[in-house]
Amino acid sequence: MKEASGDLDAIANLIEHAPEGFSVYSGDDSLTLPLLSIGGTGVVSVASHIVGNEMQQMVRNYLAGQVTAAAMQHRQLLPVMKSLFTAPNPTAVKAALEMKGVKVGPVRLPLVPLTAEEQQHLQSIVQPSINFFVS
């Protein structure tokens, strides 16, 4: 199940009372690590379109018991995660993919492209992160 309510208490209750083999995935990138810590399985991720390898490594580190490394990665990824939701999805992620050189085309109505100001803000967060994580 993809869980995107943001209510960790309710998610913990769901996990606690779920039948064996029932998996709960975070539907909110920024709650991936907290959800894993209460028994979640993984994430249905928007940020992974931009920093997929880094998200995967964060989850792998957590599952391998390298909690400090996973927490550090989470903190580093958080600005990217948050910046992708400054406009209705998938507007910002499409813009970020274009910044990364992936041609995805414009959003369709009723969505509208980012304003120049929103585009500049997104680029100020995403572009340094892309350069940081690539190296």
TrEMBL record:
Q: Which InterPro entries match?
A: Aldolase_TIM, DapA-like
**Keywords per UniProt:** Lyase, Membrane, Transmembrane, Transmembrane helix
Q: Where are the transmembrane segments?
A: 31-51
Q: Name one GO molecular function term.
A: 4-hydroxy-tetrahydrodipicolinate synthase activity
UniProt keyword Endoplasmic reticulum present = no
Q: Organism's domain of life?
A: Bacteria
Q: Which Pfam families match?
A: DHDPS (PF00701)
Q: Name one GO cellular component term.
A: cytosol
Q: Which family does it belong to?
A: Belongs to the DapA family.
- In Swiss-Prot or TrEMBL terms, this protein is called Dihydrodipicolinate synthase
